[in-house]
Amino acid sequence: MSTARRSLVIVGAGPRGTGLLERIAANAPELYAGGELDVHLVDPHPPGAGRIWRAAQSPLLWMNSHAEDVTMFTDETVAMAGPVRRGPTLHEWAGIDGRVFAGRRRQGAYLRWVYEQAVAALPPGIRVHHHPHLAVRVDGPRDGRQRVWLQGRTEPLRADLVVLTLGHLDAELDAEQGALASYARTHGLVHLPPDFTADSDLSPLKAGEPVLVRGFGLAFVDLMVLLTEGRGGRYEGDVYVPSGREPVLYVGSRRGVPYHSKIGYDWTGERPPLPRFFGPAEADALLARPDGFDFRRDVWPLIEKELGFAHYHRLFAAHPERTTVAWADFEEKYAVADPVSLPALVAAAVPDPADRLDLGALDRPLDGVRYPTPAAFQDGLRALIEVDLARRHDPAHSADLAVFLGLLSVYGQLVRLGDIGSWWHGFFSFLASGPPGPRLRQMLALSRAGVLHFLGADMTVTAEDGVFRATSATVRGSVVEARALVEARLPHPTLRRTRDRLLRELYADGAVATDEGLLAVDPADGRLLDRSGLPHPRRFALGPHTDGRGAGAFTRPRTGGPAFRQNDAAARAALTFLRELSCRAAA
């Protein structure tokens, strides 16, 4: 191997960039022993924590996972070629209760420590340099060194390889949001676009004034916290005591309900043997289809079958008194049942409808439901949330946790299929990535205190007569007016509307955008694909802006972690490429 120093630029030094660096450290002794390499991390935010997990944010904001369910380290369940290097979960590292929802600043400290450990584990010939700048452009020939241009610097970083490990991206407004924002400017209204809530300027939302909020997921939960406790309110048991500085929030969305609560009990006993109906063989068959596949027609039936199997396996194993037949008999018939015969099979074997899995009802609980008045709907949705909280914290319904495990298994296959559309990701988040139970209890308290009002499903917003107006199909004839509108959701990670100049330049330069606007990558190692389908030899991308995106920000221990597998494959491909460059130079 040549003694010339090679150069690798990683754009994005948050969790994904840190995870890649950990895999480089793990694989370098095998693939780059004795080699000289400069690793340049480009990110205006601190390495490890990055933008989302930085220390400079409200201490009121929590992680959305139990501390015991967050790890940055691989284990033997990860199907990868590189070595396993074990390390502590967040709760082991911090010495806290594993069931705690830790603050984001504490997670940021954990990520910084992981970063420092990864740097310390690198062989002596590999050095890391952090550049606190934005990367604005990557150029260079396919078969030559790349140039990475940084904002505020006149000379580029020169790289043998570039890896994009970008996290959440800002985006230009879509046509509807743009029209609402323009109306707001003209009429002196407030329109806050989709954003990472901790970055939003909430000061225009005034005390006591109504605010329409569109979006009922995790971005809304952050908004709720910052506008209540963040403005001096407090909870006394199940009662919210206002500070008087809160606005009055009117929230709605497509579903009209908050995400399902995090499950509040631990798994015991045998796990469902997953995958069963949607595993590597089924994914291979879908990928091999010469005419491609349709998600709803070809993939969703496999997912339904898999999730149903996980659900009923657990129900029969842990709660057999609520079934009428032996598991072996049910399983045999379930395996061959089609969508037409399946409901009758389930109804005969599982008498209580509450024990049957109905994914449609879980996804859209307000479909077809109508309330005569807004007050009646407030009572109705509070009751719905209370039922969800009770069920999600009762191990008598542990089949729900089995479905969660099934969702993780399914995601492990879906990342191989590329861009499958946005519906699945929203469904997964709604069912499996909802808020901690305490946040929903706070939501109930705010509702009872009159600080929070529910609008309903299929919320529509119009701008007319100098105000914003919101309506919903759930409450007949209800119209709410306000001078402020918040779009409580993250920007969609699309190349066509991203504000990230680097990605826009890549797209203009020939990088492929999928139908959903994601960066197309080679599923084998994350190399960027061009419009002829060829992988770029010197450019990689990992993360939510690619069609290899996975479930959630972090990996639960012992779940196979697709992100770990992707990081390992990219690290090994990069090190192998760099080693071969050095060997050719030495020849």
List the main descriptive attributes of the protein structure presented here.
6-stranded mixed beta sheet; alpha/beta; FAD/NAD(P)-binding domain; 5-stranded parallel beta sheet; 16 helices; 587 residues
Q: Order of strands across the widest beta sheet? A: 3-2-1-7-19-18
Task: Give the helix/strand class.
Answer: alpha/beta
Number of domains: 3
By CATH, the topology of the largest domain is: FAD/NAD(P)-binding domain
The CATH class label of the largest domain is Alpha Beta
Overall pLDDT metric: 93
Largest sheet: 6 strands, mixed
- The percent of residues in helical segments reads 25-40%
CATH homolog superfamily of the largest domain: FAD/NAD(P)-binding domain
From the spread of the alpha carbons, the general shape counts as globular
Strand content: 5-15%
How many β-strand stretches? 19
Pfam family, one: NAD_binding_9
Organism: Streptomyces gibsoniae
Protein name: FAD/NAD(P)-binding protein
Would you write up a description of this structure?
InterPro entries: FAD/NAD-bd_sf, HpyO/CreE_NAD-binding, L-asp_N-monooxygenase_NS-form. This is FAD/NAD(P)-binding protein. With 587 residues, the chain is α/β, with parallel strands linked by helices. The chain has three domains: 6-56 and 112-170 and 493-586, FAD/NAD(P)-binding domain (3-Layer(bba) Sandwich); 175-259 and 435-487, FAD/NAD(P)-binding domain; 280-362 and 394-421, no CATH class. It contains 16 helices and 19 strands. The strands form five sheets. Strands 3-2-1-7-19-18 form a six-stranded mixed beta sheet, with helices on one face. The mean pLDDT is 93.
